[in-house]
Specification:
Blueprint lengths: L4 H9 L1 E2 L2 E6 L5 H10 L6 E5 L21 E7 L11 H17 L4 E3 L3 E4 L2 E10 L10 E7 L10 H4 L5 H5 L5 H22 L1 H10 L7 E5 L5 E9 L5 E5 L4 E4 L3 E4 L3
Parallel strand pairs: 2-3
Antiparallel strand pairs: 1-2, 3-4, 4-8, 5-6, 6-7, 7-8, 9-10, 9-13, 10-11, 11-12
Helix pairs in contact: 1-6, 3-6, 3-7, 6-7
């Protein structure tokens, strides 16, 4: 029997955790695929999974490395009943959900780097990219939750500039990790966490995210959208999900847009 028979069964059935699913050998971007299918009148929820991506991307347009058959690359398309101000929190909800699913299936605790990175042992395990579909008059917001995780990925195949800051679940666990049960748990957990955000509001999510905050207390540089560089210390996230930065003068401000880089990472 295939040691990852759960994966094969889900791919054959086209259903993962009750969600209609499309499995692809290779694609450009699962986010692009999911959003294109939605534009073509395919309803949410919908899951698009790819063995490899050629145009996988992260925040600020960065590329995402994927090893065919070794990592996880997927997009879960959802139309949650969220208030407008909660939509941007989908990325934080997905991070909390991924951390819970990894703990459940692999017994590994991970941290979260604002706004969308999964961190273990001070190295990057995965990332999340949430994008919204173009709104049609009267429609609810539809969100594409894109997730990339190094599962059994060979880190040595990565570009040298990122190799030293990356890690895989297999390396952490000391064994090969079955992707099927992990994918099932991730999809189920993301749906549950986003639903809880809609049902109970922002506060419970922020509390859970803060418990896994990996960046708090670390020195970073923030390149603002208008080109200014601000150096400061991360002081956690606000009640509405923004990273708070304390600058050299002791002024604390929210990081709303732009790019952040840790100075000690």
């Amino acid at each position: 029997m295939n040691p990852d028979s759960t994966w094969d069964e889900m791919a054959a059935s086209g259903i993962v955790a009750g969600v209609r699913s499309i499995f692809l050998d290779r694609t450009g971007s699962t986010n692009d695929d999911a959003l294109a299918l939605f534009a073509g009148e395919e309803p949410a929820p919908l899951l698009v999974v790819a063995e490899a991506q050629s145009r996988g991307r992260g925040r600020m347009g960065r590329s995402w490395f994927s090893s065919p058959g070794l990592g996880l690359c997927f997009t879960l398309l959802l139309t949650p009943d969220l208030a407008p101000e909660q939509v941007s929190l989908t990325s934080l909800a997905a991070g909390v959900a991924c951390a819970g699913a990894i703990r459940q299936t692999c017994g590994i605790d991970i941290g979260l780097k604002w706004p969308n990175d999964l961190i273990a042992g001070d190295r990057k395990l995965g990332g999340i990219l949430c994008e919204t579909a173009p709104l049609k008059p009267g429609d609810a917001v539809t969100v594409a939750v894109g997730v990339g995780i190094n599962v059994n990925t060979d880190i040595l195949l990565m570009d040298p500039e990122i190799r030293g800051r990356a890690i895989s679940l297999a390396e952490l666990a000391g064994r090969k990790v079955e992707r099927g049960p992990l994918l099932y748990a991730l999809v189920e957990s993301i749906i549950s966490e986003v639903r809880e955000l809609a049902d109970t509001g922002t506060a419970p999510l922020i509390e859970k995210w803060r418990k896994r905050d990996w960046i708090k207390g670390r020195k970073l540089t923030w390149m603002t959208a208008d080109g200014r560089e601000i150096i400061g210390i991360a002081s956690g996230i606000s009640h509405d999900g923004f990273l708070m930065l304390r600058d050299r003068d002791g002024t604390t401000m929210p990081v709303i847009s732009g790019d952040i880089k840790l100075l000690d990472w």
